[in-house]
From TrEMBL:
SUPFAM superfamilies: P-loop containing nucleoside triphosphate hydrolases (SSF52540). GO terms for molecular function: ATP binding. It comes from Companilactobacillus huachuanensis. This is UvrABC system protein A. Belongs to the ABC transporter superfamily. UvrA family. Its main location: cytoplasm. Keywords: ATP-binding, Cytoplasm, DNA damage, DNA excision, DNA repair, DNA-binding, Excision nuclease, Metal-binding, Nucleotide-binding, Repeat, Zinc, Zinc-finger. Pfam families: ABC_tran, UvrA_DNA-bind. The keyword Nucleotide-binding applies. SMART domains: AAA. Residues 1-443, 453-742 form the ABC transporter domain.
Length: 747
């Protein structure tokens, strides 16, 4: 094999990496394994993706580069044979109200072509007429959003009062106003009758009427129109949905709320578009079907002339189905997709990319997938590879590790105890190797021997939200419950959107990033910093605000940021380390104050593990212990929150809650980012929380977590409309006898 067939890294020192050198085969599927914090991301993201991005940028001139993302040169001696790298991450797709699964997957344009050519009656000249984002196709009331402002009648009218008594509460109807006069003089109403006594016809006229009339106003006779109050409110207050300012929205929100558009009933299209049909279906009927039903329906489209468009549609739709998204529909707004769903949509998008020799990088693509569906992900990864690309995956799921061409195991442990290459080679070789990963791959936890017994329950009301079939969540108080089911079965809907809303003291701990800017770190977030400031202050007899870089202690040069932005008018902006504090953020004056011979910057540079042996303060050590317990020993005290992964953020949130008693905690896939060897530790943490008197509800796909729970609730049997039923609830041992449960097969 020629050397060009490898990506080669020589002496990599990024983050915790210990001068590692590595050759990764190109056009193969390589999986990176190792405990959390061992250095996998440092290799894949901070070295390979960074350098690939930087090399690509350097091919542009300096003006263009101003507008490209900034990449820094990784701390490695040499990196060879890179090509363009594409990161397929779990950042939610987001997008505005006009972005749907159909638009983002490029399936909507195909439907537009189909209807513009074959829809009856014909509508429009171009295929854009079938787009809800085009004036020709959109509903005129909501302008293609499907929702519009609807006046809240209870806020707009005081039903107890008559018109003369001031029943109209909307702005613009003051005593002396022209609009109030026009209504009072219209002769349509008994101005002294309370609104609650109006007949339906009177009410309709008051709200939506429109009749020419003359009004006596300030001594003149005006020819005008009588205009109902809602009509007028829309005309004067509701401007173009797309350009309305936040201020304008605020002003009207007391009187109106966004709700399903009353004209298009949420379809987003105008009536002409909806009238145009093929085989009895209009474009909304089709795009609003669940994908598995849509593909069957397209079988009815047999007309020879449609053949090529229909074939194209089917192939794109089946790509989405094959990755386990069969329960979604094309009208679904992208902003409501979960991280795992977003990542799968992105992956499918790249499948139809005909460029080859790319490097695809995926971070834990199995997140959110039930064990039943992992083989679908595997097919997709292999397909990306077989299209002629190099696929690099960070993954803990044994079923994904199994299909790798090549495995790189990083470790042996986390942080300073990691950063080395433990192993490279095939799956069979890994199993025989002396690594934690190899040891744990065939290791299954036994079913819990003495599960706690349910005494009392907390529950939600019965719900039919999304796909739920009038079911309730009922879990035992003070026990460890796990909620399972395939993706799209309804777990998050039931637990997070129904149960948690109805039990407002339940704390949801998910993987969303911790809010905070570059100035917040693990020590400030967990409250350790406050205690450390007090220690430094009392030891040195000075004010404790000196030991905050957000306050008096900030370096005067960089104002506590640690970096200085250089604004060079004709070249790239760049950040350099602050020459005064060298990135330490504190005023050099502050560094004269010591605690046990260390200044505050030296303390911030310590890892959680080092800090634990350094301090012997009760409060500080108990907080450090909690962070240690969730497996984040390797974090530096001063490490900024925005450098933490989703899984790390979630574990830090857990650490903050560990001393609480008598709460309900909801954990959404807490094993994300955890090595199989760390899963047992997470289970121990959950049991500790339960022993402290908390009720813990865990949404999980990890089989070891299922086996260790006291109680299991299985939602299914499938995703979307074929899910939303309660398949099993009870002690874990009982589910094994349940024939309907897909989950039972994996426990
Ligand atoms: P993994 O991907 O295996 O979980 P990482 O490569 O993310 O591990 O982390 C390896 C080590 O580098 C950890 O000690 C982590 O805290 C540290 N680290 C990662 N990113 C940063 C960063 N941006 N700043 C400082 N330390 C970091
Ligand atoms: P799970 O958590 O088991 O993966 P979800 O609760 O996310 O399942 O989804 C259950 C069903 O509800 C699916 O059909 C999904 O498409 C639908 N759904 C979930 N969230 C929304 C939403 N915000 N809007 C519309 N449909 C949704
Ligand atoms: Zn509408
Ligand atoms: Zn500074």
């Amino acid at each position: 094999m020629s050397e060009k067939q490898f990506i080669e890294i020589v002496n990599d020192r990024e983050n915790n990496l210990k001068n590692i050198s590595l050759k990764i085969p190109k056009n193969k599927l390589t999986v990176f394994t190792g405990v959390s914090g061992s250095g996998k991301s440092s290799i894949v993201f901070d070295t390979i993706a960074q350098e690939a991005g930087r090399q690509l940028n350097s091919t542009y001139n300096s003006f263009t580069r101003l507008y490209l993302p900034k990449y820094k040169r990784p701390d490695a001696d040499e990196i060879h044979n890179l090509s363009t790298a594409i990161i397929i991450d779990q950042k939610p797709l987001g997008g505005n109200a006009r972005s749907t699964l159909g638009t983002i997957s490029d399936i909507s344009p195909l439907f537009r072509i189909l209807f513009s050519r074959f829809g009856q009656p014909k509508y429009g000249t171009a295929s854009n007429a079938f787009s809800f984002n085009d004036p020709e196709g959109m509903c005129p009331q909501c302008e293609g959003i499907g929702r519009s402002y609807v006046v809240k009648l209870d806020e707009a009218l005081d039903y107890e009062k008559s018109l003369n008594e001031g029943a109209i509460l909307l702005p613009g109807y003051g005593d002396k106003s022209f609009y109030l006069h026009a209504i009072l003089d219209s002769g349509f109403f008994d101005n002294d009758k309370p609104i609650k006594d109006f007949t339906d016809a009177e009410m309709e006229n008051l709200l939506n009427g429109e009749t020419p009339m003359t009004v006596q106003y300030k001594g003149t006779e005006l020819n005008t129109s009588y205009e109902g109050i809602i009509k007028k409110f829309y005309r004067t207050n509701i401007q173009d949905n797309r350009t309305m300012s936040d201020g304008a929205r605020k002003k009207i929100e007391k009187f109106a709320e966004m709700s399903t558009c009353t004209m298009c009933h949420g379809t987003r299209f105008n009536q002409q578009v909806l009238n145009s049909k093929i085989n009895g279906y209009n474009i909304f009927d089709l795009t609003n079907m669940q994908l598995d039903q849509l593909i069957l329906t397209l079988d009815e489209f047999q007309d020879e002339r449609m053949k090529s468009v229909v074939a194209d549609l089917k192939s794109r739709i089946s790509n989405l189905i094959n990755i386990g998204l069969d329960y979604l529909n094309l009208t679904r707004e992208t902003s409501t997709l979960s991280g795992g769903e977003s990542q799968r949509v992105k992956t499918v998008k790249y499948l139809s990319n005909s460029l080859t020799d790319l490097i695809y990088i995926l971070d834990e693509p199995s997140t959110g997938l039930h064990p039943r569906d992992v083989h679908r992900l595997n097919d997709l990864l292999l397909k990306l590879r077989d299209n002629g690309n190099t696929v690099l995956v960070v993954e803990h799921d044994p079923d994904v590790i199994k299909i790798a061409d090549y495995i790189v195991d990083v470790g042996p442990k986390a942080g300073i105890h990691g950063g080395e290459i433990n192993f490279t080679g095939s799956y069979e070789e890994l199993l025989k190797s002396d690594t934690l990963t190899g040891k744990y791959l065939n290791h299954k936890l036994p079913l819990k021997v003495n599960p706690r017994v349910a005494k009392s329950f907390v529950s939600s009301s019965k719900s039919s939200l999304h796909n739920l079939k009038n079911i309730q969540l009922k879990v035992p108080e003070g026990l460890f419950s796990v909620i399972t089911g395939v993706a799209g079965s309804g777990k998050s809907t039931l637990v997070e959107q129904v149960f948690a809303q109805e039990n407002p003291d339940a704390v949801v701990i998910d993987q969303s990033p911790l809010h905070g800017n570059s100035r917040s770190n693990s020590a400030t977030y967990t409250g350790i910093m406050n205690e450390i400031r007090k220690l430094f202050a009392t030891t040195n007899g000075v004010d404790d605000s000196l030991f905050s870089y957000n306050s008096k202690g900030a370096c005067s040069e960089c104002k506590g940021k640690g970096v200085i932005e250089l604004n060079m008018s004709f070249m790239e902006n760049s950040e350099i380390e602050c020459p005064q504090c060298h990135g330490g953020r504190f005023d050099p004056e502050v560094l004269q104050y010591k605690f046990k011979d260390k200044n505050i910057v030296e303390v911030m540079d310590m890892t959680i593990e080092e800090a634990f042996t350094f301090f012997d303060d009760k409060k500080i050590n108990s907080k450090l212990k909690n962070i240690h317990n969730v497996g984040l020993d390797y974090l530096a005290m001063g490490q900024a929150l925005n450098t933490l992964s989703g899984g790390e953020s979630q574990r830090l949130k857990i650490a903050k809650e560990l001393n609480k008693k008598g709460n309900i905690f909801i954990l959404d896939e807490p094993t994300t980012g955890l090595h199989v060897s760390d899963t047992e530790n997470m289970i121990r943490i959950i049991n500790d929380m339960v022993d402290k008197g908390n009720t813990v509800i865990v949404i999980e796909h990890n089989v070891d977590v299922m086996r260790s729970a006291d109680w299991i609730v299985d939602i299914g049997p499938d995703g979307g409309s074929r899910g939303g039923e309660l398949i099993y609830e009870g002690p874990v041992a009982g589910i094994l006898k349940d024939k309907l449960s897909v989950t039972a097969k994996y426990i």
